[in-house]
Each structure stands twice: as structure tokens, then as C-alpha cells.
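Class, discuss our next protein.
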Amino acid sequence: MPEVRKTRTSTTRRSTKKTSAKNTQFIPVVDITGVLLIVFGLVTLISLCAENSTGALGRYLAPVMRNSVGIGAYIIPFLIGLIGAFFIVGPLKIITRNIVIGSVMVFLSIIGGTSLARGIPWENLSSGGGYAGNILAVLARKAGGEVVGHILLGALAVVGLITIVDQPLANLIDLIRGYWIEASDNASERSMRRREARELKEAAAKNKAKDAASDSQKRSMARMFGQISDEEPEKPPKPAAVKINMPLSPKPQGIPKNGNGQNADSEESGYAEFRLPPTSLLAEPPPPPPRVESELKNNIEIIERTLEEFKVQANVVEIACGPTVARYEIQLAPGIKVNKIVGLADNLAMQLAAIDVRVEAPIPGKAAIGVEVPNKNRGIVVLREIVESKPFNETNSLLTFALGKDVAGQSIVADLAKMPHMLVGGATNAGKSVGLNSLIASLLFRATPDQLKLVLIDPKRVELSLFDGIPHLACPVVKDVKQAASVFRAVVQEMEKRYEIFSRNSVRNIDGYNERVTESERMPYMVVVVDELCDLMMQAAAEVEASVQRLTQLARATGIHCVLATQRPSVDVITGVIKANISSRMAFACSSYHDSKTILDQKGAERLVGRGDMLFLPIDAAKPTRIQGCYVSEREIEALCDYLKEQRKPVFTIQPGAAPGDGGGGGGFDDAFTDEFYEPSVRFVVTNGYCSTSMLQRKYKIGYTRAARIVDAMEEAGIVGPLDGAKPRQVLIAAQDLESVLGGKLGLPFDDSYNDDGDEEYVPHAEVVDLNEEEGQDE
């Protein structure tokens, strides 16, 4: 028994030892070590950033670390914390000898390179690499000079990285290249998905707009086209008859073409499928220039000190930094006159060493005065930045155009339909032509050729020629002064035709008319842009001034808007007759305050700094707004125009004819009107005994514009009579005289290029879409 007890006792003791040994293995020594390392790293970092917050540790540890390794002292706390993290969450085996050696090599190269770049600062060790970095920098510079020293330290860092990765250099390069290619592919794929989503969204919006047309309007249009011809039997309306406002599929390539190379029935070729240009055609915005706070604070002190020298008590309360200028908002003490600061603009400019200083007293909507000081590092505002901005995309107007950024850096856009005309002036090389290019280009990003027509007049022959050939043109870019006067007369005639149509359809303006008709019959807006009004006024002042006066007085309701630009803003160019009807102004840098008063009716433009710096005064503003205009290069304009030209050729509805007395015909066209449907249309009209444009459109399945011009040609030839209210035109020749009339080959006063076969949606003839007439006949 005793032996058995001894055995049990020894066994119990051995099991107790094993249990105690197992319990000692579960003590979290590794975790505690990791936590302590992380805490020590955090305390070290706080000591370096704020010595007084950690007591004696910060007072003694931080200087020792800074003097030893300089800026490398800020790396050490992160390394300590990283090692502590490995103690907690990762196996310690991951910290191999190669990683330690490589990390030390990279760390030494950093502090050595910093000391070498800072000129080995022994007096201020913390600004370089400390004692260790200075010693390495001295050795590297003695080895081969400063440049070779940088190369040696860089090579040390590369060797350290290779040691850490523990892979050959070729594998490392392949790995980086693979990551780069993968990132590029992902970026391209995301861009493609965004573009496809945007195109699908635009297509869905177009389809929704087409479906929103009312059924009553469709039935009215179907009845209108169903009652024109008496020779066709009455049939139930087919769904296809209602789809006159829908884009038809393109014709085959084998159809005949006119002299301009366009399809003979391009009006039926799906005009609504025109794709607006993407903003990727424009250059990316550059990074903004850095803002130096010390420069702004110094300017504040100079402004306050200068005002104090002239007994003006004021404080700068706010600063707004724009791409061109910084506006210092000043609050005056009670009893100080505002005009006193306005008179100190030159003194402030001298003290600030600025090109010029403009004082805005007071700032609209604020109880402060603005002192605008040009930035030493000017920023560039590109057109793409404004076109992609929120204000530009939130507006629904087709005539919204980009202006630039104000002094607060906000994107500014304007609506030409609300102006409704604009006067642009400024000295040479102040940014006026670039501003016009930005205006035209931003309109092209919003409107298709059936929504907008442009009339570009460029007597200087070099500024607007970039846009020649785009489908939005109502006529070729006009470069001759005599042709310009004729074009102005033609635009006035177009305005009168539109007013006649409004009167017959009981509408007041273009918006009311476009709401009552289908999409294919809507009138396009028309914008007339003149880049150098001075040349026109010097050679054809009477005709140009009369036409401009009439357009600016009456054309707003018809959707015709004028933008007149000149680099000579004097009273003999911008006369009182022209200024009286153009309330919106855009002034670039002027040479004198007289020119500024001619454009804006107030001073200010003479203090602008050029290169797109402008003052914009819309019709609904009391004071002008300072804006840095957006820049668009010729290469961007060419890319935009090439994109538009690839889709469609221009359809010219206005021709520059000869001036009266120059030997031209009644409309200024020399060639005879030619159209393959002219002779069949004459026979059809004479046989039926009456004529209307919509009858020819339905008979020969041609567009409205083409049919209307055939009717105009027959009227000029004496075959049909003029309009007589709501009645059809009267046929003036008998059937027996038909062959003699056709055999005579009457010369008609139309240019062959005027006989376009393009997709013009608007018909400037009342009987085509006279809603009152057709509804009365239906009743």
C-alpha cells in the first residue's frame, strides 16, 4: 500500500507541473509587447510634434531624436508602431533580416539626401537629416560632388527597396508595369461605361420628349394633311400618317445628290439623330495655382496701413480668391465716406506693387467695399471646366453660354435669350475674340442645327473662319462688308416672315409657336455674331445701322439675337441708336475710361488686366460683375468643328446677295432656280387649279423648306399668285399654256446653293402650318 501511495503522489505532482506549465504559456506577452510598442510610438510622435505636452520625456527625447536623424525622427514613431502591430496581428517571422537591412538603407538614404539637398545644415540639424544625415551627405559629396552624391544616395534607396522586396529588379519592374496597365484598363472601362450611360440617358430623354406630344395635336396635324388633296379617296388614318414629326430612317446611298453633295431628300434623313459633341474634345483644366497665405496676409497689412495713412479707419473682414484677382472686402468705420476709398485706388496699387487695383464700392448685396488686387500667379479658366459645371448643365435654355469664373471662383454662365442682344468691346489683344469663340463653342455644345442657326460676320477674315462649314451656319461666314449689309437685310426679312407667321397662328413669340407645332416644324433660334463692328460702320454705316436698329428693337420675340463686338468702342462706332437697344454689355480691358463709359456707361474696364479679364453687365444687373473669361484654343475649335462637319453639311437658308444697284436680281442671286421636283410640281399645281406648300410636301414626300421654296419660285415666275390670307394660292396660268411656260425655261431669281435639300425643320410660310386655317377647314 505505501508503494502505491508513493506512486500516486509522484504522478499527481507531475500532472500539477504540467498544468502549471500549460498555464504559463497562455500569458499574452507578445500582445502586451505590441501594445507597449504602439503606445511608445504614439508618445514619441506627440513629443516630436508638441514637446511641452509630454513633460520631461518630450523635453529630452525630442531634441535628441531631431539632432540625431533630423526629419527622419518623424519616421521612427511610425516604424515602432508598425512593429508593434506585427506583434499583435501578424507573425513575427514576416520581419526578416532582409526587411530590416533594406529599411535601414532606405532610411539612411532619406536623411542623407535631405541633408545634402539642404546644404548640410550643421547649425539647424532638425531641418536636415541630423548628425547621421550630415555625415552621410559629407561622405557622398566628397565621393563625387553634390550631383553624384544625390545619385549615390538614390542608388542606396533603390538597393534597399530591392532588399526589402527580395525579388530581382526585372520582376519588380514587371510587377509595377502590370499594376499600371491594370489601372489604365480599369479607368478606360469606367470612362466607357459612363459614356454609354450618358448616351442611353440622352436617348431616353429624347424618346420621352417625343412621347409627350398630345394626341389632339397629332390628330389636328393628321386632319391638316388629310384635307389638302381632293384626288385621293378618304381612308382611315394610318399610324404612319401621324409620324410626320418623327425622324425617318436614312435613305440608301444610291439616292441622287445635289450640287453641294447632299442628299436630295436629306430633310427626311433623321435630323433628330444629330449627336451633340462630347466635352472630351476640349482640353482638361490645368491645376489651380498655389495660394500663398503669407502674400495675402501681407496685402491685408498694406491695405490697412495705407488707408490709415489717409485717415481712413477700415478693416479687412474677408478675402475672396479668384483665378485672376483676389478681392479684399473692407468694412469702414462709422462716418467714413465710400468715395474716399475709391479715390485711393492708385495709392493702393503703388503700395501693393500691383498692375492696377479696382475698387468696387460697395459690393452688391454686402455692407463692404471690395478692393480687387491682381494675383501674381494667374490661373487659367478653360471652356471645358465651365461646360461641365453645374450652372451650365442645370439650365434648360438652348442659348446658355459659358462666361468664366468670378472673383470668388464660381462658374458663371449667361442666357442669350434673356439679354436679348449683347455688345462686346475691348482693346486689341484683351481677349475679345477668344470670348466670342467660347460663346459660339458653348452654344454648339447645347443645340443641334435644327435648334440653332448662326450668322457669322467676320470683316477681319481670320477670327471666325474656324467655324466655316459647320452645319449650324445659316450662311457661309461673311467676310465682305457689302455682303454683310446684304445679310443683315436678309435677317431682317426673316424676322418679318416670322412675325407674319406668329400673327396668323395667334402666338406672341417663338416659344409660343414652338409649343403649338410638332418638333419637325419648330423654328430654330438665330444668333448673329459680328466680330468687328467698326469695319462695317466705316464702309456701310447707314445700311448696317438701320438693320441693327431694326433687329435689336424687334427681333427678340422671333428668336433672333445679335452679338456685336468691336475693338474700337468709340461713339462713331457704337452709336446712340445701337446702344439704346442693346442693354447687355461685356467689356474687356480698355485703353481709357472714355472707352469704358462708351461700353458700360461707367468706369472700370480701364483697370482690367487683360487676357480675358472682363466686366459683364447683363440687362437685369445694376453693377457689372468681374469675370475671368474661359479660354478655348484654336486646336479645340478645330476638333469641335471637325466633329460637327462629319455628321452633316451646312444647309444655307440665307445667302449674301449683292447690294441694291449692283446688278443683282431681286434677291441678289444670279443663277436660275433648279430642282428636280420643280417641273412636276408646276404640272401638278396647274392641273389641280390651286397651290399650297403642304400639298407639295405630301405629294412628293419632300421637306417643308424645299416645298416652300418651290412655291416661292413659282410665284416669282408668275405661275401662282401671292398669299391671300387663309386661302390657297391662285394659279395664274391655264392648262393649255403649261407647255409653253415650261418650254420657256423661265429664269428665277434664286441661287442654286439656296436650293438646299437639307434637314431644315422650320418653314417660313404661313400656309404650311397655319393652325387656324386647318382647324377652320376641319370644322
About this structure: The longest strand covers residues 314-321. Residues 1-26, 213-272, 658-672, 744-779 have pLDDT under 50 and may be disordered. Residues 26-174 form one domain.
